[in-house]
Specification:
Elements lengths: L5 E9 L19 E5 L2 E9 H4 L1 H7 L3 H19 L4 E3 L5 E2 L2 H10 L1 H11 L2 E10 L19 H37 L2 E4 L13 E11 L3 H13 L5 E9 L15
Antiparallel strand pairs: 1-3, 1-4, 1-5, 2-3, 6-8, 6-9, 7-8
Length: 264
């Protein structure tokens, strides 16, 4: 049997919408996007060369950061475009099947799980919330430590290290209090919450240390209220801490069915 030359790259599962609205929509590698429809489910798909997305090719390309960035940008762009037209269940990067018929089969096999998740996501979006701490920040009311006149260099070094540790501990306590308060306030306004691993400071462009990295599933009609609550929390944040929101996004953190993401 001849090996197929093309594959189906799947961005998201959604409810069917007007096929004409995918005109001009492009995804990875600039390939056009179309819908594969099965009953009351659909998948946003691009037809791509199989030799660029088979297991061997992906293994090599996943080491290429530039390629990953380009694919991620295109992938998220399609998911966002679909989310403007229908409720969308985003799939993982490089979810690839051997043809549209296989995609239809996956939609049939997972119809109940997909439908239940899509129903949970209707008219809801994801908002990311991060808390940062500026380690060692000195508060406005904190007095400048006095240096003894007869202090030796060794004692001075140990004293400075102790002061740095104490300031860091103080900052962490303030940040912990902000995280607790933020999760209490924002969690009450959200439908669901997902806790993510905090970002490595060396890999993040943001200043300070990321101490909370949550995602909240929020009703579309409450987005403005939710973002205002984040602003209010930030205005009252203890010195040396801050809270930031991003989004709204398609609900990546709440796309629970994973059966479709293995590919094949």
């Amino acid at each position: 049997m001849e090996r197929p030359k093309q594959a189906s790259y799947v961005y998201a599962v959604c409810r069917p919408f007007g096929l004409a609205t995918t005109e001009g929509m492009t995804g990875v590698g600039g390939h056009p996007v179309h819908l594969v429809v099965e009953g009351d489910l659909a998948a946003a798909v691009s037809t791509v060369p199989l030799d660029e997305f088979d297991e061997q090719a992906l293994h090599a390309k996943l080491e290429d950061l530039r390629w990953l960035e380009e694919v991620a940008r295109a992938h998220h762009g399609v998911v966002d475009a679909v989310a403007l037209r229908s409720v969308a269940l985003p799939l993982r990067l490089a979810t690839v099947y051997r043809g549209d018929e296989r995609v239809r089969q996956v939609l049939r096999e997972n119809a109940e799980a997909f439908a239940a998740t899509l129903d949970e996501l209707v008219d809801r979006v994801e908002i990311g919330v991060k808390v940062y701490a500026e380690a060692g920040a000195r508060t406005a009311g904190q007095p400048e430590p006095q240096t003894p006149a007869d202090e030796s260099p060794g004692k001075a070094y140990l004293r400075r290290r102790r002061e740095q540790r104490d300031r860091r501990d103080d900052t962490w306590q303030r940040a912990s209090a902000l995280c607790e308060r933020a999760d209490e306030v924002l969690g009450a306004m959200a439908r669901a919450r997902a806790r993510h691993q905090t970002q490595n400071a060396a890999l993040s462009e943001a200043s300070g240390e990321n101490v909370m990295n949550n995602a909240y599933l929020v009703d579309g009609e409450r987005v403005t209220e939710f973002l205002a609550a984040v602003d209010e929390l930030n205005s009252r944040a203890p010195e040396g801490t801050r809270i930031e929101a991003s989004g709204p996004w398609a609900p990546y953190s709440f796309a629970s069915p994973r059966a479709a993401e293995a590919g094949a």
